[in-house]
Amino acid sequence: MEIVLFLLMIVVTGFLINFSFLLKSSVEEYVSNLEKETAFTYLYQTSMEDVGPGEAAKMFTMYDQDGITQNIFSVPKNSQFWDLQEDDVVITAAFANKYHYTVGDFIKLQNVLTNQWYSFEINRISPITTVSEIYIEVDSFKYLAEEVPHTSYLATNHKLSHLGDEVTFISRQEIISSGESILQIIRTQITFILVIAILVEIVLMESLIKFIYEVNFDSMKSLYLAGFSKKEIRLMHFGLNSIFAAIFTIITFFIGQIIVRLFLDNIMFTFTNYVLVISSFRDFLITTSFILSIYLFFVCLFDKKLKRENFK
User: Fold this and answer.
1) Letter string b/e over residues 76-109, b meaning 16 or more CB atoms within 10 A of that residue's CB
2) What is the Cβ-side half-sphere exposure of residue 10, based on CA atoms within 13 angstroms?
3) For 233, what's the count of Cα atoms within 13 Å in the CB-facing half-sphere?
4) How many Å from the N-terminal Cα to the C-terminal Cα in the chain?
5) 91 three-class SS
6) Number of Cβ within a 10 Å radius of residue 173
7) Alpha helices (runs of H) in the chain, residue ranges in sequence order
8) Can you give the pLDDT at residue 302?
């Protein structure tokens, strides 16, 4: 019973704390990358030509073999705003990670209006991690504009005020602000989760100390009267447990990475936005130290109580 209670405490608190820190770090990195990877200042939804300086693009909407909507941007070679260089087909790192594609693979997408399938061979993977998108070279796939529904855009670094309010656009700042809003929500939730984790660990550790004294008092007394020191008695109860604490704390860190990925995929899988799970050695040290420090605090309380015990 003692070891079961102990392992339960480590697994529950370890999971909650690691999940919180990993989710926070991942979303913070996502917001930071949004600033770096959003190349345009404004993106206008317009099919009008010569409306101002910028780069025209078409976004085709097709469906993959799982019925998930995919966005394909048709842009010129060496694009200023999308990462297409001398390639014909490029996918972002987010797309590659999300759907498990690599260079040389073929992506099969369907035009649901005609039920026609199209195949695209991947030439390169762009380092972009925040959006799962496909970029194709405009001249190589001219025929798509006549066969597949699409939306025309103009990416620019200048605000085209003369277009008026009738033209929809989104700014780089709005994209970044939306990410920051998500981060603020996550931080609030993490604070709540951490409070729960701390309370769970305190309650379970306090219960463990009480359980040891109530159930094992007679055996501890017998050992003490038989000549064992109080330090040796403490090691009998917490020596092996301390090893388990370190092992299971490490395990819960890696489990936390898996759970965060599953959590993000569950709420964002059909979106083009993608949050890469970040797990640095710094995060590992912080979460591990946090969990073990609470554990060691109660071990010290046990040791202090044991030192005052006269076993009469």
Assistant:
1) eeebebbbbeebbbbbbbbbbbbbebeeeeebeb
2) 26
3) 25
4) 26
5) strand
6) 12
7) 2-37, 93-99, 144-147, 172-225, 230-268, 281-308
8) 76
The Cα angle at residue 154 between residues 150 and 156, in degrees rounded to 5: 155
Chain centre distance of CA 4: 31
Section 190-206 average pLDDT: 80
> What is the Cα–Cα distance from 190 to 292, expressed in whole angstroms?
19
Share of the chain above pLDDT 90, in %: 35
Tokens representing residue 99 in the block: 């759907």
The answer to whether the beta carbons of residues 202 and 290 sit under 8 Å apart is no
Q: Six-digit token pair at 65?
A: 């073999």
Mean pLDDT of 280-307: 80
Report pLDDT for 164: 64
| Side-chain half-sphere CA neighbours of 96 within 13 A | 19
Task: Count other C-beta atoms under 10 Å from residue 233's C-beta.
Answer: 20
Burial of 242 (0-12, 13-18, 19+ CB in 10 A): middle
Which distant-in-sequence residues (6+ apart) come within 8 Å of 200 by Cβ? 9, 12, 13, 16
Q: Give the pTM.
A: 0.80
- The DSSP call for residue 161 is G
**Tokens linked to 230:** 């109080």
Q: Which of 37-46, 90-99, 132-141, 159-168 has the lowest mean pLDDT?
A: 159-168
pLDDT band at 24 (very low <50, low <70, confident <90, very high): confident
Token representation of residue 289 = 């130290």
Query: Residue 131: which residues within 8 A CB-CB, separation 6 or more?
Result: 37, 92, 94, 272, 273, 274
Diameter of the chain by CA atoms?
95
